[in-house]
Automatic annotation (TrEMBL):
Keyword hit for GTP-binding: no
Transmembrane segments: 21-39, 45-61, 82-103, 115-141, 153-175, 195-216
The keyword Transmembrane appears for this protein: yes
Superkingdom assignment: Bacteria
Pfam families noted in UniProt: Sulf_transp (PF04143)
Protein name, entry field: Sulphur transport
InterPro entries given in the database record: Sulf_transp_TsuA/YedE
Originating organism: Lucifera butyrica
Length: 222
């Protein structure tokens, strides 16, 4: 009797779950995308381009399940470092592109691209609070926006927290600027290590982190 019950359960689990017809939803989404692009084009073609870029990035995030929270959480909880290594590669690509923009601008006599913020205890405090918050909520900014579109109610609550924190931060910015920002020093790596040292040093550090992440995931297989 038990064998019959087990075989029945296995057979039911193996049966494919029929998928619902999503054609109507797909057509509605396409109409919204095209309609939004047409409306935005009235203000300039650049707005439509940004619109499509945003949608494309959203699709990439949704399909790849890319999330900064998961890249830091998964190595500890599951041992997987797939997203961790993807994040490191993204940092490396951004390092090359941003350094090229900065260096070319300075060669032309322009101003430094980007904002070099002061480093102090406020960075450590803010990072700790943000890290705790994103683990509890289950997502960072990109992961929260992506999961909102998938219907996760918890992420809508997280967005409210993002907005509330941003408002409080804007209100209290003056106090933080007086007590922390102005008393902290801004560190620009090319000024400390030179352009070559800063650029190749950062790439070397990212490469080392990539090796460690790979070892962490496959250490049990050796």
């Amino acid at each position: 009797m038990e064998e019959v019950i087990k075989s029945t359960i296995i057979r039911k689990r193996s049966q494919a779950v029929p998928r619902k017809n999503q054609t109507a939803h797909q057509i509605a989404a396409l109409v919204i995308v095209v309609g939004g692009a047409v409306l935005l084009a009235r203000g300039g073609a650049i707005f439509s381009i940004i619109w499509f870029l945003g949608i494309g990035l959203g699709l990439v995030l949704q399909k790849s399940r890319f999330c900064f929270t998961a890249s830091l959480r998964d190595p500890i909880l599951t041992g997987s470092t797939t997203l961790t290594r993807a994040t490191i590669i993204a940092f490396a690509v951004a390092t090359v592109g941003f350094a090229a923009l900065q260096f070319s601008t300075l060669l032309k006599g322009g101003h430094l691209i980007g904002f070099v913020a002061p480093v102090g205890i406020h960075i450590a405090l803010g990072s700790m609070l943000f890290g705790i918050g994103m683990v509890i909520s289950g997502g960072c900014a990109s992961g929260t926006l992506m999961r909102m579109g998938e219907g996760f109610v918890m992420q809508w609550i997280s967005l409210i927290g993002f907005i509330g924190g941003s408002v409080l931060g804007a209100i209290q910015y003056g106090w933080w600027a007086v007590h922390f920002f102005r008393t902290s020093h801004a560190i620009y790596l090319p000024n400390v290590f030179g352009w070559a040292g800063a650029f190749f040093g950062q790439l070397a550090l990212l490469a080392a982190l990539y090796v460690v992440a790979t070892w962490w995931e496959y250490r049990k297989l050796n």
